[in-house]
């Protein structure tokens, strides 16, 4: 499909992914409001939400979720935004994703498996208390 996109479109898409990585919440949210898909996905299957979660931008994560980003989407490696937030040990992002319906057992490795593999008891506690 990238063969069908012109250079300006590709450059714009890359800019959106850079905003997700960099926490450019206002500009990214405005572009989603203007029609950029909330679940825009790059060539590795990473969504804007996964990138924002991995790079520790809870405000961006919240803004994307409010605009319809799917917390259950997985990238080409089977990872979810929740697993990315657990790996980065960002409790605020984990709470936001759980509040939006992200499930700790989704993905491969799941957020639970990620917490266990990297010995992150605080993250595991956040994930398991969400089930109570």
From TrEMBL:
Transmembrane segments: none
Any one GO MF annotation of this record: ubiquitin-protein transferase activity
Database matches in PROSITE patterns: ANK_REP_REGION, ANK_REPEAT
Intervals holding ANK repeats: 44-76
Keyword set includes Repeat: yes
Top-level taxon in the UniProt lineage: Bacteria
UniProt KW keywords: ANK repeat, Repeat
Annotated InterPro entries: Ankyrin_rpt (IPR002110), Ankyrin_rpt-contain_sf (IPR036770)
One BP annotation, GO: protein K6-linked ubiquitination
Protein name, UniProt field: Ankyrin repeat protein
